[in-house]
């Protein structure tokens, strides 16, 4: 809804899509149980003044015989792309199709899905798509937990333990602010903190070049600090950018 409000503020007309994209889910991922509440979504979008909502069926987006895909390259093969093969092919393909259907002047994405934002920017630049990509800050609960559809999977205890993600990111920011530039030193400190949560299992703790997502030894340029952590059976992601600017 923060993206909707920004679009409503900046633009003459606002279109939104509601589509759980099967192309970006792996065979053992949570497509079948992914949270869906279209009536609530439509009510919120109506209240926010959205002009058009596109809710296609899967067969509309991927009709029989569909066989064309968008592959974005190295930036889509790291981090989430490495752990979830084919994920960003699904993301880039459906976003490219939505851009072609709606023909927006501006499209709004959240920084919470930091790699997705960078993949889409790369696709738009490489394919000369006539759309401006606006990235907006991650929205958080008062205690720091990043908002996510998957938060509904968390039990009350897991919800408390999930705060280790935002705490680990704040630790990285604090160490950087105090002058630490050795990326592995900060990675190790983040991993130690996360392991204090009994339900936490680390998928990755990354400090990478903010543009290319190549892992850094020394933080000598803007860096994306990103995490993927399972709290119980729920996989959560979060990130911050370290930058002196």
Count of discrete alpha- or pi-helical segments spanning 4 or more residues? 9
In which order are the strands of the major sheet placed? 5-6-7
Could you tell me the radius of gyration in angstroms? 19 Å
DSSP E strands, number: 7
**Number of domains as seen in the coordinates:** 2
| Major sheet attributes | 3 strands, antiparallel
* Subunit organisation of the chains: single chain
Helix percent band? 25-40%
User: Mean pLDDT, rounded to whole units?
Assistant: 96
Structural class assignment: alpha/beta
What is the CATH topology assignment of the largest domain? Answer: Rossmann fold
CATH homologous superfamily of the largest domain - what is it? HUPs
Distance between the termini: 28 Å
Poorly predicted runs: none
Q: Which CATH class of the largest domain is shown?
A: Alpha Beta
Strand content: 15-25%
């Amino acid at each position: 809804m923060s993206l909707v409000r920004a679009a409503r503020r900046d633009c003459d007309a606002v279109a939104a899509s509601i589509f759980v994209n099967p192309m970006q889910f792996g065979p053992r991922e949570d497509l079948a149980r992914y949270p869906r509440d279209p009536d609530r979504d439509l009510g919120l979008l109506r209240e926010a003044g959205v002009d058009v909502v596109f809710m296609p069926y899967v067969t509309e987006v991927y009709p029989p015989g569909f066989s064309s895909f968008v592959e974005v390259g190295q930036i889509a093969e790291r981090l989430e792309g490495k752990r979830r093969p084919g994920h960003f092919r699904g993301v880039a393909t459906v976003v490219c199709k939505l851009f072609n259907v709606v023909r927006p002047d501006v499209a709004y994405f959240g920084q919470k899905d930091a790699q997705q934002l960078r993949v889409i920017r790369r696709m738009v630049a490489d394919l000369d798509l006539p759309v401006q990509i606006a990235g907006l800050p991650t929205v958080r609960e008062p205690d720091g937990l990043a908002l996510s559809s998957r938060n509904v999977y968390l039990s009350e205890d897991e919800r408390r333990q999930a705060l280790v993600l935002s705490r680990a990111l704040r630790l990285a920011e604090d160490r950087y602010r105090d002058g630490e530039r050795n990326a592995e030193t900060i990675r190790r400190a983040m991993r130690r903190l996360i392991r204090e949560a009994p339900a936490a299992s680390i998928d990755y703790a990354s400090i990478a070049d903010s543009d290319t997502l190549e892992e850094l030894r020394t933080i000598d340029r803007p860096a994306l600090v990103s995490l993927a952590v399972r709290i119980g059976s729920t996989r959560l992601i979060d990130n911050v950018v370290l930058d002196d600017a």
